[in-house]
Amino acid sequence: MTVSDELLQEVKDYLRITWDDTTEDNRLKNIINRVGAYMERVTGTSFAFVEEDEAKQLLFDGTRYAHNNAFEYFQENFLGQIQSLQFKVAVADAESQP
């Protein structure tokens, strides 16, 4: 997944990071990639994270947890939202089958 400058800025805004620092930006990009990969793994699909939807919100929250060194609590605290997204993806896949 390639993290666009726009997505990076949205995450920084969400985390209230107002300063520019290349090292921090690279760290955030790595976190965004890891959280995005986690979401793809648990849902079985990839996301562009362009639309304002459940997937993008979960990416933001997962990034917030990882940025604060607490990602191990993310799944526990967002299990309902993760399962809802999994269900939504499964329904969309089923509806697209002939």
Describe the structure.
This protein is mainly α. The chain has one domain (5-96). Helix content is 69%, strand content 0%. It contains five helices and no strands. It has helices at residues 5-14, 22-43, 54-67, 74-77, 79-96. α2 crosses α3 (54-67). The longest helix is centred in the N-terminal third of the chain and has 22 residues, at 22-43.
Descriptive labels:
5 helices; globular; mainly alpha
SSE diagram, text form:
Elements (H helix, E strand, L loop, with lengths): L4 H10 L7 H22 L10 H14 L6 H4 L1 H18 L2
Helix pairs in contact: 2-3
Largest sheet: none
- Taken together, the total number of domains comes to 1
Structural class: mainly alpha
Mean pLDDT: 95
Low-pLDDT ranges:
none
The portion of residues assigned to helices is 55-70%
- Shape summary: globular
Beta-strand segment tally: 0
Amino-to-carboxy terminus distance: 29 Å
Calculate Rg over CA atoms. 14 Å
Report the order of strands and helices.
Answer: HHHHH
**Strand share of the residues?**
under 5%
Count every helix, treating DSSP H or I runs of 4 or more residues as helices: 5
